[in-house]
Design a protein that fits this description.
The chain contains 14 helices and 16 strands. The chain has helices at 2-16, 22-36, 39-50, 59-73, 136-147, 165-172, 174-184, 225-237, 289-309, 330-341, 368-375, 378-381, 418-421, 434-453, and strands at residues 79-91, 97-102, 105-109, 112-114, 126-133, 151-154, 190-194, 220-223, 242-246, 250-264, 269-279, 315-322, 345-351, 359-365, 388-391, 408-413. Strands 1-10-12-11-13-16-14-15 form an 8-stranded mixed β-sheet, sandwiched between helices. It has an 8-stranded mixed β-sheet with strand order 3-2-9-5-6-7-8-4, sandwiched between helices. The two termini are 39 Å apart. Bound molecules: zinc ion (ZN).
């Protein structure tokens, strides 16, 4: 019956030259299968609940590798293998303590997390006067005279005036990443950073930081946005506020870990590879559902959908589940190195690492010719309320492939609530709506199908 219907549509299109073509019907079948399937949400639940806190190198990360590998094997790819690499992990240790003092009185308990990669304070913690700044320029103006021996409080919020929260994050996250070294330049003994989120709550949001080798390393914590507001208010009433904080974290030596790679071999041009990636690791304090467990599900679903719908791609579809995006991108580097060593031809590289809220569109980073061909795909997605085709940025794990001239694609879901979850305990399985997970997965599989079928990046 279904075949008859498809043939009817094909004949209708042939006669009228208008309306649905066979590719539109394939996309409809991708959405139909996906929207009826419980596989994506079940796999996400298993990953989040059985391997929460799967920072690269952690015991949970190895549990996650086993779970994902088994789930992928059930999806019928031609090959599944592990790509070995080295990761430098980091361990939070005991729960952080952070308190603001007015004189000798503990006045404000701060909900805090050590920032990823930070050194610890040592068992006694650190306590000093706290100096609030909102930019590196402000810090520089205060200089060593006002900063030496103190704790610097970086309190520039993500700017809510940005319509998309991504650039708001981009314009404020430097405080978390480079704040410690910048403050240490003027003799600070520690830093407290406002969490990178637009949400007003008591959950701190961690993430990576980097030390400058030539500057003394000082410990860094982030505090919740509501605590940052309260601390700022307290400082306005009394500039002698002191903060005590204690962390127990440490950086660990290198150990072996892996990317997982799964392929459907191309039926016409097996030597041309479409990389479809997401990252398996997440911060230690969360279940990593939005970042980036859901992304893993989106790209794994390409394998399942192609298999179940009998889609035989012309090119090799290579799903890569990357390790260590959050800290050192060792999975991304290993993958790009291997591509170079083997002189592989990557036709395009897609990544889903912007969560799994409602899918709105796709970004494409490529030359103008390829970009104009990418735009021709818009019409296929309109029936699914996907309208935003734009010049993208290339997500972190596939970004190194840019050096080989590979067009980079990214999924673009709605981001308005993404940073409510990002790198905090709020990023749990329940934060992903099953329907949005499926819509992102179907959009991903449809795009990969069209790129291959319509030779979008062939010159
Ligand atoms: Zn991510």
């Amino acid at each position: 019956m279904k075949n008859l219907l498809i043939q009817f549509f094909l004949a209708f299109n042939f006669i009228t030259g208008f309306g649905q073509d066979s590719d539109s019907l394939v996309i409809r079948s991708v959405y139909d299968n996906e929207l009826l399937s419980e596989v994506p949400i079940n796999n996400l639940r298993t990953l989040c609940k059985k391997a929460p806190g799967r920072l690269a190198g952690s015991p949970a990360s190895f549990i996650a590798l086993n779970l994902i590998e088994k789930a992928i094997q059930r999806m019928g790819p031609d090959t599944v293998y592990r790509q070995q690499l080295e990761v430098y992990s980091w361990n939070r240790g005991k729960k952080e303590e952070a308190i603001a003092y007015l004189g000798e009185k503990a006045t404000l308990k701060l909900h805090a997390l050590a920032i990823g990669g930070s050194i610890s304070t040592g068992i006694n913690g650190i306590k000093s006067t706290i100096v609030e700044v909102h930019s590196f320029e402000e810090l520089k103006k205060l200089g060593s005279e006002k900063i030496k021996g103190k704790i610097v409080f970086f309190n520039q919020p993500m700017d809510p005036k940005f319509i998309s929260p991504s650039p708001a994050y981009g314009s404020a996250v430097y405080q978390r990443v480079f704040g410690a070294s910048e403050a240490a330049r003027y003799g600070a003994i520690g830093v407290v950073v406002r969490s990178m989120t637009l949400a007003s709550d008591y959950e701190p949001h961690t993430g990576i930081m980097h030390y400058v080798d030539t500057i003394a390393k000082i410990p860094a914590i982030c505090i919740s946005t509501l605590d940052a507001d309260s601390l700022s208010k307290l400082l306005k009433t009394d500039a002698s506020v002191k903060v005590f904080f204690k962390t127990d974290c440490n950086n660990l030596p290198a150990i072996k870990s892996y990317n997982i790679v799964a392929e459907i071999k191309g039926s016409v041009k097996p030597g041309e590879i479409i990389t479809v990636g997401a990252h398996i690791d997440c911060w230690d304090v969360c279940e990593g559902a939005q970042d980036d467990g859901a992304g893993c599900i989106h790209v794994m679903e390409v394998l399942r959908l192609f298999h179940e719908l009998g889609i035989k791609p012309k090119r090799t579809i290579r799903v890569v589940i990357f390790m260590d995006e959050e800290m050192h991108q060792s999975g991304a580097k290993k993958y790009a190195e291997t591509v170079k060593q083997k002189n592989e031809k990557i036709y395009a590289a897609y990544e889903s690492d912007s969560g799994s809220l409602l899918p709105l569109g796709f970004g494409c980073m490529s030359d103008e010719h390829s970009y104009s061909k990418f735009l021709t795909l818009e019409k296929y997605f309109k029936p699914y309320s996907i309208y935003e085709f734009y010049k993208g940025h290339g997500d972190v794990d596939v970004y190194p492939l840019k050096d080989f001239g590979v067009p980079l694609l990214n999924l673009h879901p709605d981001m308005q609530r993404y940073f409510d979850y990002h790198h905090s305990i709020n990023d749990r399985f329940e934060a992903v709506h099953p329907r949005e997970l499926k819509l992102c997965s179907a959009a991903t599989a449809s795009l990969i199908y069209l790129i291959d079928k319509l030779d979008i990046f062939t010159k």
